[in-house]
Task: inverse folding
């Protein structure tokens, strides 16, 4: 399936009088609708030698934190912004999934979808090669360590 | 006698405030080691404990009380503002004599100090929540203290009237910890993203790349009661 479809699931939940558990799920689905496509772009457009250097045999070897590092390492501001946006979604998702003390509100669920839509829009506008280059740059700088 | 470190931090605040200037701000500092692990009198690195934004542009910074670093380096409160002029306040001769220095060898008496600030008639808004022990430990181990001090003094300029909390989180089980900056505010999503990007670019420009790489910034929508609904706000509030 196309991971972006998770955003449709998030919208569906949002439009069904969601309780807090559903709001938290919306935030999580919004994040994964962004993380998975971005990870695929990074993997697909990174050179084989860089992947070998970092022991990344498949997409699933790219950790959440690693992907943020790759994007933020870019010399291109639009790619760095993707990293900042994904980091924000990741932080929101972490709060929604693990922090049962602070309430996740309906407005936060709506906002997560808005952020995810903007992220996917921007991801589509950035040249995929720039994301691959950012990943290679990070691997070069760190010798492949996460 | 003010520490050189504190002076340099205030200098940085002057630079940061040129972009977006609040009416006036009060910064409360405390030495890192006194905060974390007990007091080391030889430690001169202070960290920002709270900052307050003042909204009344006509207020006079000279009318505010201020507390300088004591000889024991236990804590300090600094006032920075441009209510009546663009002159940057610094420790020493720039301060009005009656407000230049007060010393306290014990813990901060918050009710007393904040009542004193409140008596000025200004609207006090604490910006940063105190950090939890595990966050302090992470920041210390990751050598992010300088970056956090920078962040605490700069973030309020990019997110006016917001509350902030720095926390540790793990993106996924088995992964290393990261930092989060939770911004308690109500910015529209697009505006929040732009402000976050500007803050991040400023972070890189200021040389805090390590912090940039490890921090995730996101908005927590404040309740209808605003920042007053936050427990740490009430703790720090003069009321």
Result:
């Amino acid at each position: 399936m196309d991971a972006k479809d998770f955003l449709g699931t998030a919208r569906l939940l949002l439009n069904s009088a969601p309780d807090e558990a559903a709001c938290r799920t919306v935030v999580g689905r919004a994040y994964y609708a962004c993380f998975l496509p971005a990870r695929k772009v990074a993997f697909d457009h990174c050179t084989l030698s860089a992947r070998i250097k970092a022991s990344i045999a498949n997409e699933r070897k790219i950790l959440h934190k690693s992907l943020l590092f790759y994007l933020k390492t870019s010399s291109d501001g639009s790619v760095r912004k993707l990293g900042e946006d994904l980091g924000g979604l990741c932080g929101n998702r972490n709060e929604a999934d693990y922090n049962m003390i602070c309430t996740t509100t309906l407005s936060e669920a709506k906002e997560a979808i808005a952020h995810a839509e903007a992220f996917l829009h921007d991801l589509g506008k950035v040249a995929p090669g720039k994301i691959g280059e950012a990943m290679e740059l990070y691997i070069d700088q760190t010798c492949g360590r996460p | 006698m003010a520490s050189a470190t504190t002076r340099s931090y205030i200098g940085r605040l002057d630079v940061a405030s040129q972009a977006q200037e609040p009416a006036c701000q009060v910064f409360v500092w405390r030495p890192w080691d006194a905060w974390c692990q007990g007091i080391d009198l030889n430690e001169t690195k202070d960290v920002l404990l709270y900052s307050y934004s003042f909204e009344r542009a006509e207020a006079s910074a000279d009318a505010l009380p201020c507390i300088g670093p004591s000889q024991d380096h236990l804590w300090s409160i600094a006032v920075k503002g441009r209510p009546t002029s663009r002159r940057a306040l610094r420790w020493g001769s720039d301060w009005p004599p009656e407000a230049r220095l007060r010393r306290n060898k014990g813990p901060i008496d918050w009710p007393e100090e904040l009542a004193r600030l409140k008596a000025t008639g200004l609207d006090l808004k604490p910006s940063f929540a105190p950090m939890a022990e595990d966050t302090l430990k992470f920041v210390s181990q990751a050598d992010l203290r300088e970056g956090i001090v920078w962040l605490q003094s700069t973030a309020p300029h990019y997110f006016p009237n917001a509350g902030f909390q720095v926390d540790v989180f793990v993106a996924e089980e088995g992964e290393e910890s990261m930092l989060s900056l939770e911004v308690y505010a109500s910015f529209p999503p697009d505006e929040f993203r732009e402000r976050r990007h500007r803050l991040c670019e400023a972070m890189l420009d200021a040389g805090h790349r390590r912090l940039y790489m490890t921090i995730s910034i996101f908005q927590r929508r404040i309740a209808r009661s605003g920042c007053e609904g936050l427990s740490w706000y009430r703790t720090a509030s003069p009321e």
Summary: Helices of chain A lie at 5-14, 20-44, 48-53, 64-73, 77-98, 106-125, 128-142. Residues 13 and 21 of chain A are 10 Å apart (CA to CA). Residues 20-44 of chain A form the longest helix (25 residues). The radius of gyration of chain A is 16 Å.
